[in-house]
Structures are given as structure tokens and as C-alpha cells.
């Protein structure tokens, strides 16, 4: 999937990213930073994983994820600032090309969370 140009602009500005998974105890959220995300050539989103043990356990049960991100610096549909909701699937990669790409920027990463977007909606 090709990500919208506006979303790519958002990634050039700092902001908080929220990643939601579903597990036996209900929804679980973790955070990251816009500047940590990388977009692979095929549109997958790569996130460095330091901890995220609860997220990893949830993904073993269901690979469905929701990711939100935004920036006040990018004009939105209704004024200053915009945000996005990415719906898709995710897997943790502890080796391979996606992991190598993440590890090259973030030496502390134990894995790469690879998000495959299925639907991307602008929320602001």
C-alpha cells in the first residue's frame, strides 16, 4: 500500500505514535515517536522495538494493530495539525532485512515491529 504524502510529511516532524494491540486482558497501548518510524519501499512501517513484551505476546494471539500518529506542524483537513489512523497487521522481526534496517539506526532495538497497513485514514 502506498502511504499518503501527508502522512509522510507527518513523519518528518516529531510527535507521539500510539500502537494498539488486543490481548486476553483487553486492549494494550504502547508509544513511540514519529522520528523512529521508517517506511519500507513496499509501504510497510518499521518501528524499533526495545521492550514491547506485552505487545509481542498480544501479536502471538492476534496480529491486528491500530497505529495513530500526528503532528501539529503539518496542515490538516480542518486547520493546523493533522493525524492518521493506520489499520493493519504486524509482526516482530528479530532478524532479516526489516530488522537490519531498524538496527542500523537504533542500536538498542531488539526487534523491528513491521506494520502492514490495510487502511489509512486521515483523522484531522
UniProtKB/TrEMBL annotation:
Pfam families: PNPOx_N (PF01243)
Boundaries of every Pyridoxamine 5'-phosphate oxidase N-terminal domain copy: 4-122
Domain of life assignment: Bacteria
Residues in coiled coil: none
Name of the featured protein: FMN-binding protein
Native source organism of the sequence: Mesoterricola sediminis
Amino acid at each position: 500500500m502506498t502511504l499518503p504524502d501527508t502522512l509522510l510529511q507527518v513523519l518528518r516532524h516529531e510527535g507521539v505514535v500510539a500502537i494498539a494491540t488486543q490481548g486476553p486482558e483487553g486492549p494494550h497501548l504502547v508509544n513511540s515517536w514519529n522520528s523512529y518510524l521508517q517506511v519500507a519501499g513496499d509501504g510497510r512501517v518499521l518501528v524499533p522495538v526495545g521492550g514491547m513484551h506485552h505487545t509481542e505476546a498480544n501479536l502471538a494471539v492476534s496480529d491486528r494493530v491500530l497505529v495513530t500518529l500526528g503532528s501539529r506542524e503539518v496542515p490538516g483537513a480542518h486547520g493546523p495539525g493533522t493525524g492518521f489512523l493506520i489499520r493493519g497487521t504486524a509482526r516482530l522481526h528479530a532478524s532479516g532485512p526489516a530488522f537490519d534496517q531498524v538496527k542500523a539506526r537504533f542500536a538498542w532495538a531488539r526487534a523491528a515491529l513491521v506494520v502492514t497497513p490495510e487502511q489509512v485514514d486521515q483523522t484531522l
